[in-house]
Design a protein that fits this description.
This protein is mainly alpha-helical and about 210 residues long. It has helices spanning about 20-45, 55-60, 65-85, 95-105, 110-120, 170, 175-185, 190-200; strands at about 125-135, 135-145, 155-160. Helices cover about 50% and strands about 10% of the residues. The structure holds manganese (III) ion (MN3).
Length: about 210
């Protein structure tokens, strides 16, 4: 199937001043679109042409000769997930079952935020910072380049893009400033909760046994 570019779930100027309209226009309309177009071009005459995006990811993740397809497919998936990981008027603290699970996994919400900020700020080079479910606990992980939790048996709840194109026009090299803006004002906890519930429906993820 042809993979389509997902629309932003908000206006281009909706995340300003933390992420500017200019950044979102370049990031979504140029970078994300380029991954979509490249992926469609790469798979069109292969046996992956009819596969869904998730199928492409699973079938190419460990194949050295399909690295280019995997990278573009993963960047398509990651960016769509990232747009939904942010929202205008987001940030702050989660509540309900998600907050309980974060406290159970990190100690408290502040410790989670510090861990996320430190791991994301300290990640070397391009990549992604994630809040994931790994078994019965939540973890913060970072991945390099296009790599993503889906192919490591983790369930993604939230992600933040750590490639320079995500923040350089706004804060240049100050990645920690971008991360602070995201944590304080943009993180979409409702989306994280939806991912947890959807994933946990058959897992009884809060059971301690
Ligand atoms: Mn990006």
């Amino acid at each position: 199937m042809t993979v389509h570019l997902a629309e932003l779930p908000y206006d281009y100027d909706a995340l300003a001043p933390h992420i500017s309209e200019t950044t979102l226009r370049f990031h979504h309309d140029k970078h994300h679109r380029k991954y979509v177009d490249t992926l469609n071009e790469l798979v069109k005459s292969t046996d992956l042409a009819a596969a869904s995006l998730e199928e492409i990811l699973r079938r190419t993740a460990t194949k050295a000769d399909a690295k280019k397809i995997f990278n573009n497919a993963a960047q398509v998936w990651n960016h769509t997930f990232y747009w939904h990981s942010l929202r205008p008027g987001g940030g702050g603290d989660p509540d309900g079952a998600l907050a309980d699970l974060i406290r159970d996994s990190f100690g408290d919400i502040a410790k989670f935020k510090k861990t996320f900020r430190d791991e994301a700020a300290g990640h070397f080079g391009s990549g992604w910072a994630w809040l994931v479910r790994d078994g019965k606990k939540l973890k913060v992980v970072t991945t390099h380049d296009a790599d993503l939790p889906l192919v490591h048996g983790h369930t993604a709840l939230l992600t933040v893009d750590l490639w320079e194109h995500a923040y350089y026009l706004d804060v240049q090299n100050r990645r920690p400033d971008y991360l602070q803006g995201v944590l304080d004002h943009l993180l979409n906890w409702d989306f994280a909760h939806e991912n947890l519930v959807r994933d946990g429906e058959s897992l009884a993820f809060r059971s301690k046994s």
